[in-house]
Amino acid sequence: MVDLIESLRGCDVELTVVMPCLNEAETVETCVRKALDCMRENGIEGEVVIADNGSTDGSQQLARDAGARVVHIAEKGYGNALIGGIRAARGKYVIMGDADDSYDFTGLLPFVEELRAGGELVMGNRFKGGIAPGAMPPLHRYLGNPVLSFVGRLFFPSAIGDFHCGLRGFRRDSILRLGLQTGGMEFASEMVVKATLQGLDVREVPTTLAPDGRSRPPHLRSWRDGWRHLRFLLLYSPRWLFFIPGLVLMTLGLVAGTALTFGPVYIGKLAFDVDTLVGASAMVVIGFQAALFALFTKVYAAEEGFLPEDRRVRKLVDIVTLEKGLVAGGLLALGGLVGLIASLAHWGGRGFGELIPAEVLRMVVPSATAFIMSFQTIFAALFISILGIRRSKETSIDIAASAAEEAAEAVTRTATRG
User: Fold this and answer.
1) pLDDT of 2 strictly over 70
2) Residue 355 exposure: Cα atoms within 13 Å on the Cβ side
3) Chain centre distance of CA 55
């Protein structure tokens, strides 16, 4: 509701350029003037908003003198500063960019044209537009950005080539509806991921990157912030975090376990026997648990609104009811019980004396694995049923109706007393 009200308060102008700022006295004035000159030259009605995150070097006054509007953002962090600036923006469209003079604020027109043509998120691509010598550290240029952008394209159905370009434009109302929450550098990834998952019209234009104009080191911390980006991408993709690794483990374990159940397997001079069978059993159990975690995460995230609902997962949950899960778990337990009875019979045939470990483990290990998976299945069915319990969500209409009823009751009580 807050984001909706803030969205309705916007749109006084066509474009707002939002720049997060923390002690950028050396460059903020230049950035503001470039953005305002670009809008003036191209007939764009707009403004520049400096989202100040607690500068102590006079950046605020320098920005005001250059023609910007300064808003103070108390919560520290790149993402917090940007979301505060976006909420304060009066434009229908917003273009965000760092106030360090590394991005070209004289080249905003391509972003505006794509937004006017229906784009909801327009990303800059520094690798297509050009990166000046010394503008990006080699670690970021050849490892960090390419790898994280590849992971983003792999995990999500996105064609964006530069996931972390700081110069990007978007419809203000569309981005506010995404409910962006991260307060740090991973805000850049969150915007692209959620926009993609929600089906926004995401586009890309070439842009350039120049060496920033500051004499101090940047706020970015390569390994810490790179990990935060990767962590976010993983947490928003249960399929790649849990399901695919789990499926691979479970498949390898099943193939190896099935082969070893009937006897040793020889590859050249290497012999794989019951020790490997135990390892294969562990792979099956771990893989099955990981696949269940993927299902849990998908259901929970959809119920809470973190991720859009996956129709395939919803269909699976509708088909695999609690009762069917209990039956499947019971059948697995029955299979495990049959195996254990067979192993006891084998022991009895030996007069309950000493056994050959290789023989008995080929019966016991698969049986124990089936027992473990039976309880995993039963507990999973119960847990998914709990996640599927629908909570009644009070809408604005419900709130208004309740208020009206309370007011009517108050009037009735007053009239009765009178």
Assistant:
1) no
2) 17
3) 30
Q: Locate 236 and state its tokens.
A: 């928003």
Task: For the chain, give every domain's residue range.
Answer: 2-235, 238-387
- Residue pair 338/331 in contact (Cβ under 8 Å)? The answer is no
C-alpha 221/C-alpha 29 separation (Å) is 25
- SS3 annotation, 159-189: CCCCCCCCCEEEEHHHHHCCCCCCCCCCHHH
Contact between 187 and 86 under an 8 Å Cβ cutoff? The reply is no
d(C-alpha 43, C-alpha 380), whole Å: 60
Q: How far is CA 197 from the centre of its chain?
A: 9
SS3 208: coil
Here the tokens at position 293 are 């975690």
| pTM of the predicted structure, to 2 decimals | 0.73
φ, ψ at 62 (rounded to 5°): -60, -40
43: helix, coil or strand? coil
Contact 91, 125 (CB under 8 A): no
pLDDT tens track for 7-44: 445 567 999 999 999 999 999 999 999 999 999 999 99
Tokens of 219: 């706020």
The predicted structure's pLDDT at residue 408: 61
297: pLDDT strictly greater than 50: yes
- CATH code assigned to 2-235: 3.90.550.10
What gap in Å lies between CA 6 and CA 410, rounded to an integer? 33
Extended beta strands in 250-333, E state: 265-267, 270-272
